[in-house]
Design brief:
single chain, rod-shaped, 385 residues
Length: 385
């Protein structure tokens, strides 16, 4: 560290900001290590960061102290710390010189117990869960194509802009009704409850989005308020909770019918993507066309086959009928008297009747004789038999 020197301006010595900060930092480094008790909040850990950052809060008066710890050392503790837990941190104070920010460089961390807020939330969570307010069976499905979307969010909040922009980009026909409210502070819980009641009275609202951007544990406390949780459950239409970041889980998330990790993700849950719908319809139309063409082709092939079989069947039927007729004709010919005549016999008629017995004739009577070919008329000369 370079030496801290002042600049002489006549009768006064003046330090630059950088020199002043280095001097204070050097003085802080001479202080002993100490234990500090506080409630963890704003815990931030990233794989690419060399340090883990957090804030220690005194729940008695709200005083805060920034802290950090090397990531490898923090991970080695395997504490799995969460925002809201009370801890004892062993470390020494230091100054972040570029911004003159006082912080505690942690050398060790021990869990001291649940923070006051976390403990109260845990008791409330268990109470509401016992009543069945978080049960999966009471969750309602979201409408496929909502007519109107209710949005409960802060005034001019980034969450509001994210939801509106995402919905309009994905599904322009959907209408959005916005109810602006406080989203942090002591008045927020009651204001959110009133906004939910108001938005649910709007006609044709099919789904409600409760949206707020990220923040500290304290900022998100109104969304774990019992009144807000019960208002979400009492809402007559499905509710999507999009409060905080993905790692945040206020109690309204558990009571809502669906949870979104971010306000933008909420838009993806409540409305379909128009481009995807059009593409899906085009695929369905093309599939129906292919199916219809295949069906027509199958029926055409079936009709062609039936036509061919009918043509063959007609020919076969005619041939069978011809053969039957020929057999019948042969039988008829065999049974015909003419066939008998062809064998040398004759048919004798007297006065138009066939003569079957000679006793019916008398000499001198005329008879007609039919032969196989032609016939003649004769006179009976003698009768015998």
């Amino acid at each position: 560290m370079s030496k801290v020197e002042a600049i002489d301006y006549g009768d006064r010595q003046v330090y630059t900001v950088s020199a002043f900060n280095r001097g204070v930092s050097s003085w802080l480094q001479r202080l002993p290590t100490v234990w500090v008790e506080g409630e963890i909040s704003e815990l931030r850990r990233q794989e690419r960061w060399q340090s883990v950052f957090f804030t220690l809060k005194d729940t008695n008066d709200g005083s805060i102290l920034a802290g950090l710890m090397p990531r490898g050392q923090f991970d080695a503790l395997r504490l799995d710390l969460q925002n809201g837990e009370r801890v004892h941190v062993y470390g020494r104070p230091e100054l972040f010189e570029p911004k003159a920010e006082l912080r505690l460089r942690a050398l060790g961390i021990e869990r001291f117990g649940l923070g006051e807020h976390l403990a109260a939330l845990e008791r409330l969570k268990q109470k509401l869960a016992a009543e069945g307010l978080f049960a999966a069976e009471r969750k309602r499905p979201l409408p496929r194509f909502p007519r109107r979307i209710g949005l409960v969010t802060g005034n001019d909040a980034a969450a509001k802009r994210d939801v509106i922009a995402s919905v309009q980009a994905r599904f322009p026909p959907a209408q959005i009704v916005v109810a602006e409210t406080f989203v942090q502070g002591p008045r927020a819980a009651e204001a959110v409850v009133e906004a939910l009641r108001t938005i649910c009275t709007e006609p044709e609202v099919d789904v409600v989005v409760l949206a707020r951007g990220g923040g500290s544990v304290e900022d998100l406390l109104p969304f774990s308020d019992e009144r807000v949780v019960r208002a979400v459950v009492a809402c007559p239409v499905p509710v999507v909770s999009a409060v905080g970041h993905e790692q945040d889980t206020p109690l309204c998330d558990l009571a809502a019918d669906m949870r979104a990790s971010t306000p933008t993700a909420a838009a993806r849950l409540i409305v379909p993507d128009r481009a995807e719908l059009i593409a899906s319809l085009e695929r369905a139309r093309a599939g129906l066309g292919r199916g219809a063409r295949r069906s027509v082709e199958r029926h055409r092939e079936r009709l062609d086959g039936d036509g061919t079989r009918l043509e063959r069947a007609a020919g076969l039927l005619v041939e069978r009928r011809r053969a039957t007729l020929e057999r019948s004709a042969a039988k008829l010919r065999a049974l015909s008297p003419l066939a008998t005549l062809e064998r040398g016999y004759a048919i004798v008629r007297h006065e138009g009747a066939v003569v079957r017995s000679a006793a019916g004739l008398a000499p001198g009577e005329a008879v007609d004789v039919r032969l196989a070919e032609g016939g003649f008329t004769g006179t009976v000369d003698e009768v015998w038999g």
